Structures are given as structure tokens and as C-alpha cells.
Hints:
Number of helices of chain A: 6
Structural class of chain A: alpha/beta
Number of domains of chain B: 1
Low-confidence stretches of chain B: none
Helix content of chain B: over 70%
Number of strands of chain B: 0
CATH class of chain B: Mainly Alpha
Radius of gyration of chain B: 20 Å
Largest sheet of chain A: 11 strands, mixed
Shape of chain A: globular
CATH class of chain A: Alpha Beta
CATH topology of chain B: MetI-like fold
Mean pLDDT of chain A: 87
Number of strands of chain A: 11
Shape of chain B: globular
CATH architecture of chain B: Orthogonal Bundle
Number of domains of chain A: 1
Strand content of chain B: under 5%
Strand content of chain A: 25-35%
Structural class of chain B: mainly alpha
CATH superfamily of chain A: P-loop containing nucleotide triphosphate hydrolases
CATH topology of chain A: Rossmann fold
CATH architecture of chain A: 3-Layer(aba) Sandwich
Oligomer: heterodimer
Mean pLDDT of chain B: 93
Largest interface: A-B, 27 and 17 residues
Number of helices of chain B: 10
Distance between the termini of chain A: 26 Å
Distance between the termini of chain B: 43 Å
CATH superfamily of chain B: MetI-like
Radius of gyration of chain A: 17 Å
Amino acid sequence: MNGIAAADSLEVNFSLARGSHVLNFQFACRPGMSVITGRSGSGKTSLLDCIAGLLLPTTGFIKLGDKTLYDSGKQINVPPQERRVGYVLQRPSLFPHMTIKKNIEYAFQKGTLANTIATRVNALSEEFGISNLLERRTNQISGGQAQRVALVRAIAAEPLLFLFDEPLSSLDEQSRIEMVAAIKKVNEVTGKPILYVTHSSAEAHELANYRIAGNDGQFRECKAESQSS
Amino acid sequence: MIDPPFSIFLSLTVAGLATLFATCVGVALGFLFARTSFRGKDLLNAICILPFFLPPTVVGFVLLELFGKKGPIGKFLFDTFHYTPLFTWHACVIAAFFISVPLMISTSRAAFETVDRNLENVSYTLGRNRFDTFQHVTLPLAAKGVLAGCILTFARALGEFGATLMLAGNIPGQTQTMPLAIYEAAQSNQENLAIGLVLMFCTMSVCVLYSTYRLGRKW
């Protein structure tokens, strides 16, 4: 689609019935930050849920690289655990019964060597400034720190695509600045496509390499933006 | 002849085994009712909870019909293994299980329903399958509720009387649990023995509840 290299791209063309109206999503994402804007309730989160495999589209297809994640025609629906999609939610969803370190370690595939996990956890923690939090419980850190931990945990799973659902919305100003820096770092370090949902034009302007806008239930790609970082 | 030490031992064994079986069945059904949607779910849930609302003698009668030599389960067991649980201590466990399992199902279901589904979804997106997610996320987060269910189940199984009497009888040294021993002591004017058994029963229950609460707090 649109001449995009298949290996690292996300291609989306599906519809989702919601009550009496139908949402249509048709766009492609290259490596870099694709920011999705639209009013509250326009279906932005539903879009991410469909891509992550947590919600079933009505018809159409979703392709990530050369793998089909969903295709209604071919009756393909890859379960979320096999999609390799890193999802950071609006509210930091850390496992409250685990320490920060355990939260990150949980993202590694079963069978990964303990040494490899320890090295990678330390490297990621260092890189994103959360080394001092590793032994703490989730209720002993701030919202901004929790969101960065959720980000690191998502990276640790080595996904092929990142989904961010308004990750700054519940943060104070200082935490926002730190989180924006961390998200930009993900963009630089991983080189994977990132779908970033927001209803803030300022956020979209600051982060977007590409923009996807949702109007009247139609989500389409807009003109390319210059890289802001 | 009432045998108090045997009754205490039998009651604890029966309540322990009934709680163990009820926990396995109750957690599985509680999770099923909390996390899945299928046709007839509410009806199945109602049937599973039904023994809690029926008088224990009614449950005992139904179990007698099921496990009797002419009942579907009893006939199968007798024809296949030449075995009948009736009037053995196994019947005490069966009666205690059916009477107490609704508590385990209800509390497990409530516990699973309070677990944030976003956390389970995050676990899936991190590459963990349903079993891993259940083992490492859902169950630990529902553990306190499940533990509360175990306490209630154990307490109910320990105090079971009516269904046990109908299914296992009241045979001293064989099927006479503590509630049955207390009943017999009271009926045969052995007041001091009855008082002793009641005090022992209360002490035992308090010890079990106290140690479980302590365990729950440490957890």
C-alpha cells in the first residue's frame, strides 16, 4: 500500500460496527511516529484495541510486516499474545503484586536466560532513568514514573509495533516532559512503527512524523509532517 | 459410643478434603462465570449455587438419589468398581463438598470480577498466553478473595450436619463428625460431653480462622 516497504510497516483497512454507526480505518504506518487525532469517543482506542487483538473488527484486514494479524475474508485472527504489539495504555497498567523489576522481567519470553534478562533490564532501566525504582512496589512510584516503567516493559517484549493510547493524559507537567523524551527515545532506539493516539493538537505537532485523522468515523492518513525530534 | 478424638479428626479431614475439592472446582467455575460469556451461563450458575439455598436435608436426599445403588452415579460406581460411598466417611466428604462449593464459586467469581481486565490484556500483549496470564496475573490478584472463599468453605464444611446425616449416617467411629457427635451427646443426655465438644469445636474454628487471617495478612 502506497509503496511502503512491507518489512516494518503496518497496513490497516477494516471497519468496526459500533452501535448504529460504522468506523472505517484505512491507512498505513511506516517506521516512525504516526499520531492519530480525533475527538474523544471517535474510536481511537477501539482502533488500537483492534490492532492489539483485544477487539474484533467487523470486516477487513490488518497486516504487520508480511504477517496478517486479521483478515475477515481468510478468517485469520491472530491472538494478542502472538501479535508482538507493545501497548502502553492511558493509565499505567503495572501489575500491582510485582515489583518494578518483576514487571519488566515479565515481558521477556519464557526460556530467556536469567543473565540475558538481568543485563537487558539494567540497560533499559539505565537508558530510561528508572534504575533507582527497580526494587520498589508499584504504589511507591509516581504516575509519570509508572508510565515510563510501562514503556520500558513494552520495549522489553521486543514488539514489532508500539501502540500508545494517550500516555500523557494523566501526568503532571514535569512528568509529561520526561515521558515525551522517553517516547522520542523509543522512536529513535527501536526504529519500529509507533501509533500514538491523542486528542491534543500540541502533542500531535510535537511528536508526529505522520498524522492520521479521524473525522465522522473515517480514519485516513494526512499529509506527512517533518520530524520534530 | 461417641469417640470425640475420632470425631475431631474426621471433621478436620472431611472439611479439609471438601475445601480442597471445592477450591479446585470453585476457582475453575468462578473464573468461567467471571470471564466468559455463553448461552445458559446464568442458569448454570444458578444450578451451581442452588445447594446453598436449599435445606441440607433436601441436598442430602438428592445426593442419596444420585449416589444410591439405583442412582445414576451410585449404579455406575457399584457396577464398575463394586464400590458405594454411602455410609462411609467418603459420603461425609461428598455431602460437605456439595453443601460448601457454592460459597467457593460465588466468592471466586466476585474475586475474579474485581481484577482489572486491562492488566490481563497487557499480559497478552506482552506475549503471555491465557494460562500464563491466569497463573501470574489473574489468580495472584484474586488470591485474597479466593482465600476468603476457602475460609468460608472450610467453615461451612466443618459445620455440615443435615446432608451428612442422610448420606453417611451417624456411625460412631466411622461417619460421626463433630456436629453429629454433639447432636448425639445432646440427645442422649450427656450434657458435659456435649459442652466439651461444643467448646472444642469453637476453639478449633477460631484457631483455623485466626491462622488463616494471619496468613492472609502476610500474603
